[in-house]
Amino acid sequence: MCIRDSTYIIQKYIEKPFLFEKRKFDIRCFALVTSINGIIKAYYYHEGYLRTSSKDYSIHNLSKSVHLTNEAVQIKYKGFGKHEAGNKVSYSEFSKYLANYCRDNRIEPGVSFKDDILPKIKVRMKVRIGCDRRYY
User: Fold this and answer.
1) pLDDT value, residue 136
2) Beta-bridge partners for 19
3) Secondary structure of residue 32 in the 3-state scheme
4) pLDDT score, position 55
5) pLDDT in the model for residue 42
6) pLDDT of residue 4
7) How far apart are CA 26 and CA 70, in angstroms?
8) Are 41 and 135 in contact (CB under 8 A)?
9) Is the peptide bond before 119 cis (omega within 30 degrees of 0)?
10) pLDDT averaged per 10 residues in sequence order, the chain, 136 residues
11) Coil, helix or strand for 56?
């Protein structure tokens, strides 16, 4: 088989991810993107959520319930919904967790989800869709 005739996905697994209550998570955010007469506009929805795994993170436990946060995967496991309804955490809940984490670990200045993380996500979304900032 020739490499150029195949498709590969190569990624680096993060062995020490930032965790929510000892569990992996991903951040879900939403935007509506329109293109009218070649003009692209994107509208960012202000509220989203985090999807969490059902079990505590361990690099040694290879179970999908530990490493994948997809609801289609998590719903198959006994721990689904044990910690949060539907394994989902609101932005405001995560903001509180992050503030407490920074305080407890003496991280100064603290990291704000709303002021530090979300703006970076928005910038990356704009770059990915090639959107002019005035519409975002």
Assistant:
1) 46
2) none
3) strand
4) 95
5) 84
6) 60
7) 9
8) yes
9) no
10) 60 85 94 85 89 94 92 94 96 94 85 90 80 50
11) coil
Q: Which pLDDT score is estimated for 107?
A: 82
Measured at the CA of 10, the angle between CA 7 and CA 16, to 5 degrees, comes to 160
H/E run at residue 17: none
Residue 27, judged by CB atoms within 10 A of its CB (0-12, 13-18, 19+), counts as middle
> CA separation (Å) from 67 to 57, 71, 87?
7, 12, 13
- Write down the pTM of the prediction: 0.79
Q: Which residues contact 121 (CB under 8 A, 6 or more apart)?
A: 27, 29
Per-residue exposure over 48-59, b if at least 16 CB sit within 10 Å of its own CB, e if not? bbbbbbbbebee
Residue 126 class from Cβ within 10 Å (0-12 exposed, 13-18 middle, 19+ buried)? middle
**Token pair recorded at residue 43:** 């509208």
CA gap 82, 92 in Å, rounded: 20
